[in-house]
Specification:
7-stranded mixed sheet, single chain, 278 residues, 3-stranded mixed sheet, alpha/beta, 10 strands
């Protein structure tokens, strides 16, 4: 077990983070910067790197036993396994939350601890603890499937805004504004590769920004497609319909539609790129 120097903590809360990739590492670093919490970092591969940001770090889940709150930040395909293992480790009053970008599959079982599904609406195209940073959640939204004052306070301390949303609604909306864009990004790049690979040599910032999500972790992309298949099937059909309608619109209608689209787009984000709606 790796340890760091003792610190005085204001809240008395012991918080565990299981999985120290981009999201888990950023949670650990954000809470470390507050100086308010005793922190436990769990990762088989990154616990030594994380030692300076937590009270102690370890490769084993059992070291979460005394935590008041646990963030499960494993890969989505591994999340259910971690949640199952925690049933024999943490206390009944422990608050456990996850960060998976889908919520129905983690809410299909009653847990012997206080489980609250969560999804921070933040990320980059990079992965790993080395790419995590404390400011990742600043100005972002963080979905929770039910209210909890302690968890909401932690999220606010990390600079995010907690939003309460039921899991079915979340998964449909996440598909629309996150998972579908990933698939479209991949499709756009794949179309360019297939139709005229030489065109990539003159691609600039517009193509770069539009295809950024094609860099999504492959296992995460597969989980999105598999675990949210019903929403994907529905939205892909609707997107194709809307694409054809836009392509075939009369000139005047196209101009009016584009003006409306641009007005909404301009109202969505502040100068730093954060969504300012809600």
């Amino acid at each position: 077990m790796e340890t760091m120097e003792n610190r005085n903590f204001k809240t008395g809360l012991k918080i565990g983070v299981a999985g120290l990739g981009l999201i888990g590492g950023s949670i650990l670093k954000a809470l470390y910067e507050t100086g308010d919490y005793e922190l436990v970092g769990i990762s088989k591969s990154s616990h030594k790197k994380a030692a300076e940001f937590c009270t102690y770090s370890s490769p084993v889940l059992e070291d979460l036993a005394a935590c008041n709150v646990v963030f499960v930040c494993s890969r989505m395909s591994e999340t259910l396994d971690v949640l199952d293992k925690l049933e024999d480790i943490v206390r009944p009053d422990t608050i456990v939350t996850d960060v998976s970008s889908l919520k129905r599959f983690v809410n299909n079982k009653k847990r012997p601890y206080n489980f609250i599904g969560g999804h921070p609406m933040a990320g980059t195209e990079f992965s790993g603890f080395e790419n995590s940073f404390a400011e990742l959640f600043s100005g972002t939204k963080w979905i929770l499937n039910k209210k909890n004052e302690i968890l909401e306070d932690l999220i606010k301390k990390m600079g995010a805004k907690p939003i309460i949303m039921e899991e079915n609604t979340h998964d449909a909306r996440a598909c629309l504004i996150s998972h579908l864009p990933m698939l479209l990004s991949c499709t756009l790049l794949n179309t360019a590769i297939k139709e005229d690979n030489e065109a990539l040599k003159i691609a600039s910032s517009g193509f770069r920004d539009t295809t950024r999500l094609a860099l999504t972790d492959i296992s995460l992309a597969l989980d999105m497609l598999e675990l949210n298949k019903d929403n994907f099937n529905d939205l892909v059909d609707k997107f194709i319909k809307n694409l054809k309608e836009l392509k075939n619109m009369p000139k005047t209608e196209f101009i009016n539609t584009l003006n409306s689209i641009q007005k909404i787009r301009k109202s969505m984000y502040d100068d730093s790129g954060k969504n300012k709606l809600l």
